[in-house]
Amino acid sequence: MRVAVLSDIHDNLWKLAPALDFVRDCEAMICCGDLCSPFVIDELGNGFKSDIHIVFGNNDADLFRITAKSKRYPQVRFYGELCEITLGGKRFGINHFDYIAKPLANSGRYDVVCFGHNHEFEITQFQSTLALNPGPIMGAKFGAGGRQDVPSTFIVYDTKAGSPQGFRVDDDGAGVREI
Q: What domains appear along the chain, each with residue ranges and CATH number?
């Protein structure tokens, strides 16, 4: 089973569109939070026809409208701040926050832990658990020095092979390439 893993969209529909087009043949999607506005649900629901598993992040401001809008799309599922699910025979733990997800990965309870929040692409092995941060679809991160442009990235994880592959949306949004 191929699982698309996205995070930190922050309303950037221009970068989300090519990512959705690229992952359209995946059998499931995980979104690790920070969609931001309710209209992102329409893009996800119309752009990906298989199951979409979403946890909330710290920038999902209008939870009422986001969840209400998701009812239009039977493939969209919300789990609050933590999702525990089995996909393709692998146990997934999904949370938005890196500082929560890394201890979850260290626990050994899951085969794969997916997270976002810090806007940094990361694939790390914690003993028997693979930790995946797909990085931000948004294409920026924030720190002490202010906003910094970073690549818009996501991951496709193959549950059968147990292998993640990172991808980057071109700066102009015209295509996607392997990292």
A: 2-178 (3.60.21.10)
